[in-house]
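If I may wish for something, please sit down with the protein I am sending here and say whether tokens and residues agree:
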Amino acid sequence: MHWKHTVIQSEKMFQLNSEDAVQACIARVKEVNPYLNAVVEDRFQDAVRDAQEVDKLVTSHCKTEQEIEKETPLLGVPFTVKESCSVKGCINVKLSYLPDLHLQDSKQRII
């Protein structure tokens, strides 16, 4: 089973809404990030607002569950991205210079 379906099925099984999933993800990031230093910039407040909008869409029944799953299969599933990916309002770092890559001479000391 694909991980996406596992998360979505878990949300259905436990009646976990998007905001709850995002809040759980935020709590975990805050718990482990001091050790991993993996999250450069957070958008926690925006993520909660986005999750609330997703929950409103789902409960409004404007679209069927099948339509939502087909059109936006990861809607409401929290995730993180590297700062090299463009995200509105966040730092975006792209490699603009490739260093001169060469093999070290076997006589030189490699550190």
